[in-house]
Amino acid sequence: VAQLQWGGRFTAPPDESLLAFGSSLEEDLVLAPFDVTCSMAHVRALRGGVISDEHAAWLIGALEVVAREIDSGAFAARARAAGAEDVHGAIDARVRELAGAAGELLHAGRSRNDQVATTLLLYTRDRASSAGATARATAASIVQRAREERDAGTMLAGCTHRQPAQPVLLAFVLIAWAEQFVRAARRFAAVGSIAAEVCPLGSGALAGSTLPLDRAGAAAALGFTAPSRNALDAVGNRDAALDLAHSYVRALVDASRICEELIAWSAPAYGFVRLADRASTGSSLMPQKRNPDPFELVRARASSMVGAYAGALATLCGLATSYQRDLQETKAAVISIVERSSSALDAFGRAFDAVTFDRQRMSSTAGDGYTIATDVADALIANGATARVAHMLAGAAVVRAESLGRALDESDVAEAAVQLGASDIHAPLTPEASIAAKQTAGSTGWAMVGDQIASLQDELTHLSAGA
Ligand code: ARG
Predict the structure, then answer these.
(1) Which of 126, 193, 306, 338 has its CA 20 to 30 A from that of 345?
(2) Residues 109-119: pLDDT tens digits?
(3) Which residue has the CA at smallest separation from atom 1 of ligand 1?
């Protein structure tokens, strides 16, 4: 029989199937350690004038036992056997078993409503911090690869519309990828701060309490800036948890875009990337296959998390202020998003470390598709042509070269110079020269890429110091 936290006003027992339907225990077991922390702070809030020091000591002792049972893995089985509606009730039930009469006092002045809201914030802070660390570590390892590839001088044709556009350094592409993880790390840090602002504990079910709870002491003990201002709002506010889910989904969507490129690059038709055996998967039928499964799975996880996030958000639509039971579903949805996104983000970093670039092959394709045409046009502009005329002349040169099956060369620049009535025009005619000629901040020029690496590194150091 389930150990319920209510029942006095009923004369008939609950329907077992409906009780089981109403349980979120499997989904919220992951909150157990945070509930214990929250419960300890509540004991502190009660000690100020509701319970004796002796009872407080009993309660703390019992909660410490529960914490150990959670650590050892023994708690989950107990909670399941108790048939609890949620992890919060399961912990309360276990404390009542362990602390006898004192155990009956733990829930004084508390509702699961403020307990759930507070516990979810503690979980959000914890996961925001670990997600931030993962995002920073991934960014750092990508920046390190950028450093190596810049030193090696690896180039490729930068693409738009998936078509060759202009020559770039591979380091430049890697920095673009790292930027996304740095932004993700910033978002996780912001979520961590939001989740540490106000503490709902002591809000009771919705209206606060008639008992003299030390709310400020509990909030401080839990590392919040202050107790929440309005109990009705506090028990139904899921903003921080949803912000965390959102940040996770955003990070995964970014990762999925990188996955897509790495998947394409690892195909022999590209031959830019080799994924080490440890991160590759074979085929049960085709002996030659080496598949980039981790990147495909991360890409797919991003899509399913977008859907899950929409679902989590939708559980709040039209909910009246304060606690509604629907919020149990929000909680389960957020936890599932966070845990499943977190494993995908970890997997991405791990798989990325298994990537090696075929420098030779990549660099040898950097000029394919007339990627220096823009440099030719720029040279004409620098020598007095309007942008439109330069574009036309360089375009005509591409048509001519293409029909002859050759690259753009000096003869094309000379021909354009004749058309312009100019002499002695020089244009970068190789990918190396194109990259070397870039001079704007943020460009793929060697020096600028060096600046980007240094600046990203600074930001990562700064973010880590603030974490
Ligand atoms: N099991 C619910 C949850 O986890 C708590 C329900 C508390 N409030 C209530 N009035 N039933 O969100």
Answers:
(1) 193
(2) 999 999 999 99
(3) 86
